[in-house]
Amino acid sequence: MYCALYDAGRCRSCQWLETPYPAQLARKQSYLETLLAPFDVAEWRQPQASHQQGFRNKAKMVVSGSVEKPLLGIMHRDGSAVDLCDCPLYPASFAPVFAGLKPFIARAGLTPYNVARRRGELKYILLTESRHSGDMMLRFVLRSKLKLAQLTAALPWLRQQLPQLKVISVNIQPVHMAILEGEEEIFLSDEQALAERLNEVPLWIRPGSFFQTNPAVAADLYASARDWIADLPVNAMWDLFCGVGGFGLHCATPDMSLTGIEISREAIICARRSAQELGLDKVSFAALDSAAFAGEKLQAPDLVLVNPPRRGIGAELCRWLEDNAPRWILYSSCQAESLAQDLARLARYKISRAQLFDMFPHSSHFEVLVLLTHSNDN
């Protein structure tokens, strides 16, 4: 993949860009195999590759520059800004949105926030696209509500220019820190969720709910989880750290009891909406802490699926799983090192199958899916 920004030394986010993509994938697979060597993986599936460019479905842009000439991109530690509107990781459909937003910022008088001076209003632009429909969700992250009326008054012009913007909101983030968003969300559109569809499974994305950045590889990941579980006699399962329900909704059948747990209330609203569309009567979702939810239960289901953040599931949940012994654990990890730490705590389980999913090309990051089988079933 060619990137003029990288060649000019202005952005080095893609640290592996000079390495040919097949070599990147081989390097990640080799590292993962070394990391999991102590756990004796019974079966390795071939790593799942990604498109090398245009694969991202979201952009998180720091707004800098001036109200007349805003920059959308990143801010280096020395305070210098880089406009990333031409980043090749974004699909071509993002370009007209970025182009339309720059004059809108001036039209609405949204002064970019100056970190050094602690002045200005517009901190970030957050854009998410549905690969299913091409519709988009746009969020303005503001320091306060000072410019909210001006933004709202100018919005009809933007919507006329960019009718693909179906969900539009303002997030208020008043803290002078590198925090992406605050707790208050103000919707400026009738629609409050973006419709997505992966493998014919309806999914919804609301502001503040996590959704994978690489939808094509995410679809492969969810499909693999569904296929691996289909071979097992599972009557009941939990989907912990479930997000908007991508894993659980792919794996659930009309006869299966599924409980999805996620701390984010916004994500749970999305998951419930999808389950209702699919007509899954034995599926329920709740906004709770996953470890606390499990800790209050006296019995495990046949299978526990976990998709934790980078820190992993942790010692407390590992102890509960060891003590209550579900027959299978399906673990999706975005941080292989924390996965290895958790596997060391799950001494009664063996890795029946493992596969790497390259969700983040041109970087050292990747996703991995492992199927763990309790020793009593080996």
UniProtKB/TrEMBL annotation:
Chain residues that bind [4Fe-4S] cluster: 3, 11, 14, 87
CDD domains listed in its UniProt record: AdoMet_MTases
Stored Pfam families: tRNA_U5-meth_tr (PF05958)
Domain of life: Bacteria
Active site: 334
Annotated EC: 2.1.1.189
Residues bound to S-adenosyl-L-methionine: 212, 241, 262, 307
Catalytic activity of the protein: uridine(747) in 23S rRNA + S-adenosyl-L-methionine = 5-methyluridine(747) in 23S rRNA + S-adenosyl-L-homocysteine + H(+)
Keywords: 4Fe-4S, Iron, Iron-sulfur, Metal-binding, Methyltransferase, rRNA processing, S-adenosyl-L-methionine, Transferase
Gene Ontology biological-process entries: rRNA base methylation
InterPro entries membership: 23SrRNA_MeTrfase_RlmC (IPR011825), MeTrfase_TrmA_AS (IPR030390), MeTrfase_TrmA_CS (IPR030391), SAM-dependent_MTases_sf (IPR029063), U5_MeTrfase_fam (IPR010280)
Family, as annotated: Belongs to the class I-like SAM-binding methyltransferase superfamily. RNA M5U methyltransferase family. RlmC subfamily.
Cross-referenced PANTHER family: RNA M5U METHYLTRANSFERASE, TRNA (URACIL(54)-C(5))-METHYLTRANSFERASE
Physiological role: Catalyzes the formation of 5-methyl-uridine at position 747 (m5U747) in 23S rRNA.
Protein name per its UniProtKB record: 23S rRNA (uracil(747)-C(5))-methyltransferase RlmC
